[in-house]
Amino acid sequence: MTKAILSDTPRQNPCAQCGTPIPRPDWIEPGEGRVSYLWTCHVCNYRFEAVAVYDEAAVEHPPLAA
What average pLDDT score do residues 22-28 get? Predict the structure, then answer.
C-alpha cells in the first residue's frame, strides 16, 4: 500500500447498519480511478464496502492481466 493511500485512509466511518463509528477499514483496494474500502462493525457485525471514485487514477499501478 502506498503512503498516499495510508495517509488518506478514512477514519471513524459510521456503520451503515447501526451508525457506530468504525476506527479504520479492514481492507483497502486501490484501482484505476477508485479506492474500495471494506468495513466491519464490531458492535453489530455488519460488513459493507464503500468506494471512493476519482476523476484521475489515485494510485499508479500496473494494468490488470487479461
Answer: 94
CA atoms within 13 A on the CB side of 65: 0
Sequence ranges of the domains in the chain:
3-53
Distances (CA, A) of 20 to 30, 34, 50, 54, 61: 25, 25, 16, 27, 34
- Output phi, psi for 13, to 5 deg: -65, 135
* Residue 7 confidence (pLDDT): 60
pTM of the full structure: 0.66
